[in-house]
Structures are given as C-alpha cells and as structure tokens.
Write a structure and sequence with these properties.
8 strands, alpha+beta, 3 helices
Amino acid sequence: MKEVQWNNKSWEKLTKEETEEIFIIRSKVFVVEQNCVYQDIDNNDQKAIHVFGKKQNKIIAYSRAFNEGDFFKETSFGRALVDKKFRGKGIGTQLIKETLRIMKEKWPNKKIKISAQAHLSSLYKKHGFMSKGKEYLEDGIPHVAMYKN
C-alpha cells in the first residue's frame, strides 16, 4: 500500500468533500467508536489548520491545529485520530510529527498545549510533551494537559 499523502489546509481551502470526510471520520472515531456523545462541530474549525493524511484518496488520519488564543492561550492541536483499520502502523506518530512540523512552520518558537486522552500520554511524551496537573474528565474520557516548548 502507498505511503500516506499529507495535506494541510485552512477552513476556506478545504473542499466540500474534504470537509464532509473530516466530519465523518471524526464522528466515526470520537462519537461512535469511543461511545462519546459530544458536540464535535464547535465553531472552532474555521480558525484551525486541518492536517490530514490520505491513503488511496481517503482520509485516514487527521488533526486540527490552532494559533495562540484560538483554542488555548498557547498554540495547540486536537481531534487527532487515525482510522481504526490503520492503527498500529506508525501513522499516529507520522500525524503528530506532521502536525508539529506545520505548527513550527506557521507559528515558530511557540509553546504548545494539548488536552490528551490520558491513555495516549506516553505517545505524546515521545514527541517531547510533558504532563502538567492532574487527570480530568473531558466528555467522560480521562484527559491530561500536556505541554511542549
């Protein structure tokens, strides 16, 4: 199978098809698979840079990145996911690296804050993130605040 083709686009540059595909995969992972009822479409997509990986012309990995003050006080990213069929193949690591690369390019030398699902904190630590504070529930799922300088 081909390598992942990485893309990043502002809200205005996404095609209607890409927007629909992003909403579908986010719903598939976060609402259906994780059995979590929450408001995914939150009026923050318009401020985000959408980072996504495609294989065979289908989005299989995704995150959205924010400049300072657009989500947290710091730059940040979230809604990071890999389609279930493609997990365990290093694509999550590629997604984080690509997201961090885009953020460094667009917003150099900025502190990054993420709200990570607690069970994924060790993955983010491999990319230089450090946990700060206690675990907390976000939409019924344990999370931890993590920072990277």
